[in-house]
């Protein structure tokens, strides 16, 4: 998110990077603590993480879908 703002040259505070890194680290720590409570060892944790990452399906945003449908309709209209 912050890199996107930086690349678009929107105004942002450089301290936000540090704050976001710390938030991510805190969330990962809590996640690992919960895994330890459940008895999940490090190896299984990494395996589950890889499986989870593979299960993520990237979908285009609705605005892009609508644009693609309009282009397809226009192309179908031309060929008719």
From TrEMBL:
GO cellular component, one term: chloroplast
Superkingdom of origin: Eukaryota
Record bears the keyword Ribonucleoprotein: yes
Gene Ontology terms describing biological process: translation
GO terms, molecular function: structural constituent of ribosome
UniProt keyword list: Ribonucleoprotein, Ribosomal protein
The keyword Membrane belongs to this UniProt entry's keyword annotation: no
SUPFAM superfamilies the record matches: Ribosomal protein L29 (L29p)
Family membership: Belongs to the universal ribosomal protein uL29 family.
Stated name of the protein: Large ribosomal subunit protein uL29c
Organism, scientific name: Dipteronia dyeriana
């Amino acid at each position: 998110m912050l890199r996107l703002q930086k690349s678009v040259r929107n105004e942002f505070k450089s301290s936000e990077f540090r704050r976001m890194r710390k938030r991510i680290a805190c969330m990962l720590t809590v996640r690992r603590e919960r895994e330890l409570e459940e008895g999940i060892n490090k190896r299984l944790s990494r395996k589950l993480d890889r499986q989870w990452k593979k299960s993520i399906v990237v979908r285009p945003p609705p605005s892009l879908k609508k644009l693609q449908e309009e282009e397809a309709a226009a192309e179908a209209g031309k060929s008719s």
